[in-house]
Amino acid sequence: MSRHTEIFVVGGGPAGLSAAVVAAQLGGKVLLVDDNPVLGGQLIKQTHRFFGSSARDAGIRGISIADKLFEEVQGLKKNLHVLLNTSAVGFYGEGEAGILSPERYEKVTYDRVVVGTGAVENSLAFENNDLPGIYGAGAVQTLMNVHGIRPGQKILMIGSGNIGLIVSYQLIQAGVEVVGVVEAMPTIGGYLVHASKIRRLGVPIMTGHTIVSALGETGVTGALLCRVDDKYARIPNTDVEVACDCICLAVGLSPLIDLFQQADCRMVYVPELGGLVPLHDGNMRTTNPRVYVAGDASGIEEATTAILGGRIAGARAYESVHGPSDAAKKIVDDANAELKSLRSGSTGDRIRWGRERLSQEMPHADQ
Amino acid sequence: MSLRIEEHPILTFKKGKKVQFTLDGKKMEGFEGEPIAAALHAAGVRLLRHSPHKDRPRGFFCAIGRCSSCMMEVNGEVNTMTCITPLEAGMVVTTQKGHGVIKP
User: I want to staple A210 with a disulfide (CB 3.0 to 4.6 A). Which of A100, A184, A328, A340 is the partner?
Assistant: First the structure.
């Protein structure tokens, strides 16, 4: 079987959904695939309130943002076709992809594709890091906030970035004891407001510490920690053992990029964006003119920026099929203004540097 | 304290009906539609397979079907990602050894 679409969207998270909604609203014919049984990507497990921008979703919980996007999709059935439980398993030739559902394998041909595959969680190298009971922070959120099951009774958090801090608070809300947050850097990685929230509840944040090994035979029973010096080397005689039945790794994410490589997009390594990303311009277009990128796959940030990047990608993909449109231009201009304000200030430094690197590397920036 | 969350300040959880399945021949209970790995976790089972080369105990890691750490034999099918496979009544779940053996 084979089907054709103007704009093919891979991934139904905040980025892909936003791209699909915008392109369909403008009048494009859109096919969206997602390998999960529900749309929303990681939003469906994010119970915290977003900072966002004043114009977009500030103070709203991630789960409610997902609901809002679902509603928009419902209103667009004529132009937007959604296939759930369906993976984009490969890009072939020019404008061809293979999609796989439990029922069948199909070929999709498309004029443009927006890839919003998101990211995968990083692991961390330490002894016994594969023991049952060591979970990624996303996994902990899935288990706890989607399925209503605690990951354990006593958990140790590794990483004090915003995810580590927010998930620690969510764990406490679910009735799990957080024995501590371990951070190798000399200072807390995430926002002070998140750190204060869990500190007030008595959770120690151990900066300048790292995990040496997980303890236990067939599952986690504890962890061995140590202090590190300013070069992150272990300081002798500083080992401490903590008892816990679970260890949560919140040590960052890496963009999920296989499809871009299959589509011959030029890749660049930008540490500020989470590693290897497809080179792309301000219109979210990669070096393969058929292929656009949005969300964490374009650089690790968060859901609000993923939505805005998705809106730009959707609008520009539509224009590159149907020609210039005032409505599309307005969507892009508004999104760019919001992105500029979200990425301003010292908290946006790394992202701005990372994105600056991209625009320097892009052969014809913003064309 | 049970690992199932009964009360939550923000969320309510809609569960399917209670169903029975087996793990290595032992009777287990879970809720229809939740991932097999989640049902096992709630029942206190974290060890899902043994790694191929060093026979290391493994549980799930990512819970979204990306990392392959949770693969078990389900209804005779090896390498089933139990973190994203919904639980059904009567499923026969087996702790997987290594890569498992594909039966003809």
Answer: A184
